[in-house]
Amino acid sequence: MIAQILLQLTSAVASLGRVRTSSHIASRRFNALALGAVAGDFAVKYAHTGRADFLVGLILFVVLTVRTLLILGFSKIEGNTFRRRVGCAVAFLVCAGASIAGQLYLGEPIGPLTLLPLVGVGLGAWASRPTTCLCAGGASSLWDA
């Protein structure tokens, strides 16, 4: 219980830091911290309950955290629009696959509660001039040169 509160508090503070800073690199670092904290929260929940929905959440946020850390660690990804687009597409496909697989594992049809976040992330990721790639947790611009 205490671990969950600390992880959620870390995520909230990091999210605020991400928005409040004017430094692009610092913003990305705060973003990675926030995503990692959410992944940690899902890990704790999954460890205690074994529920498939918490496992799916863990997978999604680990993917998003890893993608953000890769962008931070490799300047070639940051400096190349095509590489950022590929990274965003891969992250989105893994997230969509995990969401759909989790729903099927539960033995239920793919319903609106599964599709709504996927459609929202998809539209945000592929909009004509988004400010950030939402499937990457706000980690990169898709269309700027």
Write the layout of secondary structure elements.
Layout: H1 2-20, H2 24-49, H3 52-73, H4 75-78, H5 81-105, H6 112-126
Helix pairs in contact: 1-2, 2-3, 3-5, 5-6
Short summary of the structure?
With 145 residues, this protein is an all-alpha fold. The chain contains six helices and no strands.
**Beta strand %:** under 5%
H-E order? HHHHHH
Q: What is the end-to-end distance?
A: 45 Å
Helix content: over 70%
Structural class call reads mainly alpha
Give the oligomer, counting copies of the same chain as homo and different chains as hetero. single chain
Taken together, the total number of domains comes to: 1
What is the number of helical segments per DSSP (H or I, 4+ residues)? Answer: 6
Give the overall average pLDDT: 77
Low-confidence stretches: 128-132, 134-145
Number of strands: 0
Large-scale geometry: globular
Question: How many strands, which pairing sense, and closed or not: the largest β-sheet?
Answer: none
From the alpha carbons, calculate the radius of gyration and give it in angstroms: 15 Å
